[in-house]
């Protein structure tokens, strides 16, 4: 290999930012340049030499001693995971983890991953029948997906490393990004939709379901957006508006269930249950599992219920009461401003703006409190944890965001003020979301520009100690990126936005259009952040959007009540029913509201939550399993006879 080529390749590594905070865009550019600068022969030789991709990196803390690092390496090697330990300095100690394809397949068998078989059905992966899972055009290396390999390694080794994590020896554990795969997510003006399947292959089913739901919801918003425009110009009867939104919300949510069932079947998560693996943070005593007989962590449910009903929900009630008080206090301030400065004063806008800002602040603070309370309850699985956290959050968010709107509509009976208050709150809510979505990427770009001026050479001693300079550079930069927590806040934003769109649709025809425009940009920004701003998260398996589905359905039912109430407040409508039913005019509201609830129920029953092809595929898988069991029994019987 020519010396000039080696010098050219290493010169790209001769510059590095002074701080770990430099964003991933700059790091990706430099790492790709490094790979391209190496001659093809050297790149191929290096590839053949290792032949194993680095999936996970363990970063040791500054206080970790060399012996402790070596002990961790020995523990991991017991699981036949390939390791490379590099202790470069007191502050830089990395352990790179990889695995052979054969070992990954063994992990997949132990984890009971669901894979598609050559017969077309979805079955639990069996290491001893690999050929049954080799579809047309696949190799053995393709069975374990991009998102699954890091998780399989982490699930195998992490229980044995908990003591090192609690003692602060291990500072972080994360999977490395795959730069070549990330190119599939680069922004493309010609792309009309998000690559959901590619997102699933890389980030896992939990994150891909969020993007799938966002895409489906955004497309569904086209219909109320067009309806809102027509409603504004032609002033539709509010009974027609209420009926439209009942039909739209119900069909949207029922069709999403079908779409979600298709996703979860193809991704092998449709039959997940509450008996799945416990959360990492779950606490308990090791006892024999009543089903499998294996030693598992168990915690008495009575303590969880005691925490929920004696501590968590009383605290939630106090927070809800405080949020309602602050919402009502706004009207007292508005009345004082009106008396002091008159109706034409611009100061009348101030209480509404302050209230909208306080809503965002209270939401942020309560989210932290809800997470803390749910942690204390010690739920076993991630799905149970998410469900109880969302339940707490939705109780508060409905009061925090919409209590003042209900007060204006049904206590003050001021529909003009309702429209103004709703649009102001929605506008500020969208601005806060945009600030969060756009602010982080813009900050990353600024840091990237700054990084080009703040550079220094890599120490020559480090160059000789590391076995793979490109991998070291990647690990160094990604270890300084922020950790992606979950899709929790993203779903919350969508849920609150959905409430603003449907709860008072009768007086806010443009709310759906504003949500549509916001979501078109938001989902691309979310994908950009995941690929460029955060560490790559470990994939998490899930079969649906969990408690958020119930939250959206709750808002759709509340929308029927609120829009029927607004309809009944119209003077012409109310006078019509008073003349028609002099003694039971209020009963007409109840009848119309129940009629719409009945329509929602009929649509719900008419649309099955699983497509027919999914139901047939599940029945086929059950049939194949029962036939295989019968064949095994028959074979055992023949062996005994022989």
From TrEMBL:
Annotated compartments: Membrane
Annotated TM spans: 199-220, 232-256, 303-326, 346-366, 390-410, 422-446, 546-569
Membrane topology summary: Multi-pass membrane protein
Highest taxon of source: Eukaryota
InterPro entries per UniProt: Anoctamin, Anoctamin_TM
Residue ranges occupied by any Anoctamin transmembrane domain in the UniProt entry: 199-618
UniProt GO MF annotations: chloride channel activity
Family: Belongs to the anoctamin family.
Stated name of the protein: Anoctamin
Organism: Glossina pallidipes (Tsetse fly)
Lineage, highest ranks first: Eukaryota, Metazoa, Ecdysozoa, Arthropoda, Hexapoda
